[in-house]
Automatic annotation (TrEMBL):
The protein's name: DUF488 family protein
InterPro entries, sorted: YeaO-like
Source taxon at top rank: Bacteria
Length: 124
């Protein structure tokens, strides 16, 4: 969990049971997670525009030794104007409600959700 004054952002696997403490639940994966029925996901939003590009996702392949470089490349991708709109939208949610970034990734600490949480709580 990341907390920055008025912002509380949590990263979780979509396969975990929803909690009342989740606040707004947003899936930040580009593709829909296997084995999850949309009606069982308890999502408020699926924000594909903020997910890493397919090329970056394939290169990273969830290999922890590539995470540092993945984080750098993904943060660069987030500078794209289309993605900046999605980031601003998530910041607004986080400032008013709790925000849970959901991903299907097994290693949440080495995921786009973790990078996104850091970007969202970064004070300029």
């Amino acid at each position: 969990m990341t907390k920055n004054s008025t912002k509380t952002i949590t990263c979780r696997r979509i396969y975990e049971e929803a909690s009342p403490r989740d606040g707004v639940r947003v899936l930040v994966d580009r593709i829909w997670p296997r084995g999850v029925r949309k009606e069982d996901a308890h999502l408020d939003e699926w924000l594909q525009d903020v997910a890493p590009s397919t090329d970056l996702r394939h290169w990273f392949a969830h290999r922890p030794e590539r995470f540092s470089e993945f984080r750098r490349r993904y943060q660069n991708e987030l500078q794209n104007p289309e993605r900046q709109q999605a980031v601003a939208h998530l910041r607004e949610i986080a400032e008013h409600d709790g925000l849970t970034l959901l991903t299907a990734t097994r290693d949440v600490e080495h995921s786009q959700a973790a990078v996104l949480a850091l970007v969202l709580t970064d004070v300029d």
